[in-house]
Amino acid sequence: MSDHDAFVTWTLNPDADFRRGHYSRAHRIAFDGGAEMPASAAPSVVGRWADPVGIDPEEMLVASVSSCHMLTFLDVARRAGFLIDRYADAARGRMGEVAPGRKGLVEVVLRPDISWVGPAPDAEALDALHAASHAACFIANSVKFEIRVEAPSPPAAP
Asked: For 21, what's the count of Cα atoms within 13 Å in the CB-facing half-sphere?
């Protein structure tokens, strides 16, 4: 197996009132490969104490699901003999109640828009490619919420 590291750093601003909850949720996340990004709680969760520039944990999880599905799909499609030159996804996660008084992501919907070079799979084959990708995706195998793919069907052959 492998390890995957992230380094999360937050520092209290000198003018903040931590005891009253009046402090910025902005922080930094660094990864072992050197990439860094600004992060924060979602504005919908903590209002003005969020940094709207920062990526919130919910967005990161939705992006992880989308990225993992895409990377797996590219490999599954390649092995099935298809050639893709573009894959774009407008993924969306939905928060909801997961237990009384507890919220969490209850669903992630993937909306891949795929450009094929040469013949595209028919609707049945496309569904099978997405199903195989979902089953093999490490992130999908790690979460308990529903993940749906709403991919448009390829155009019918003339």
From this structure: 5
